[in-house]
């Protein structure tokens, strides 16, 4: 490897020397011919063949020396101002390729700022920082997925073992079968949400924008949870302004409403209230989903849109921590906005703002 590198360097130096030699030969020859011709015409001096041969030998020697001098200077310049920063960049890139995402390159402040090595190094360090963040997210995601998959699988396995007992009473058999069904559904929901989130984050699907009545969609989504709120004895208040249309992806926004309503019902105890409202405010259609549940502390509020994060351990078995991550991604894709208002012990409100249909906004201004 070293012999190959030395050979390449020798060939490069030889090419440099040849280039300088040819350049020097051309320039000096042209200058000498012009000088001698002018001197001959001005002073009337006539040069003999011997004089010209002697001058040519001296000139040729000068050309050889000057070419060698320029080659040496260029080699020193290249090694100091090019090879050293390039070596740094190559070493950093090699570490990065080997999976060391902590690799960073010290800035190079050379004599020639126009070389742009500091710019390359700065972009390399930014790239390494981004890759480090992505790798951390990927590792955490895999660890969380593995953990989330183990829990329902372990429950299913335990209940399946119990069902194999021949002396098991019919009541317990039905109870264990129901538990297996519940965990299977939870496992299916987890996989579905992971696939949805993966598709959304990788931009493999794009919003299909069309105009529709947002109030009708909210009412349809709310009615899907009628059994849930009746079973828990929760009061539901719906205040939906009529005639509020939006131009967005109906299917993607349905994920938002289903997750927000589901969370509101999950965190609201029996006797509590869940409220859903829709208002047209200027160019925005504002949807508010509120509950009288446990609320969210400021510390928990910083992480609620992260994957697999569950701020309330007592409700962890009812979800998989992907719902609000899906909500945030859909909101980003559709160009909408989301915010949270919450107070511990008093409940939470999620506010989503979606741009209204263009002609409807014009009518409201007139």
Offer a concise description of the structure.
This protein is α+β, with helices and mostly antiparallel strands. It is 62% helix and 13% strand. The strands form 2 sheets. A 5-stranded mixed β-sheet has the order 2-4-5-7-6.
Structure description:
The protein is α+β, with helices and mostly antiparallel strands and 366 residues long. It has 3 domains: 2-100, no CATH class; 145-201, Orthogonal Bundle (Helix Hairpins); 210-365, Histidine kinase-like ATPase, C-terminal domain (Heat Shock Protein 90). The chain contains 10 helices and 7 strands. It has helices spanning 2-43, 49-97, 117-163, 170-201, 214-223, 226-232, 250-266, 298-301, 323-333, 358-365, and strands spanning 210-213, 235-240, 245-248, 273-281, 284-291, 337-343, 347-355. It has a 5-stranded mixed sheet with strand order 2-4-5-7-6. A hairpin with a 3-residue loop joins β6 (337-343) and β7 (347-355). α4 packs parallel to α9 and α7 runs antiparallel to α9 (323-333). The longest helix has 49 residues, at 49-97. It is elongated, with a radius of gyration of 38 Å. The N and C termini lie far apart (78 Å). Residues 313-320 have low confidence and may be disordered.
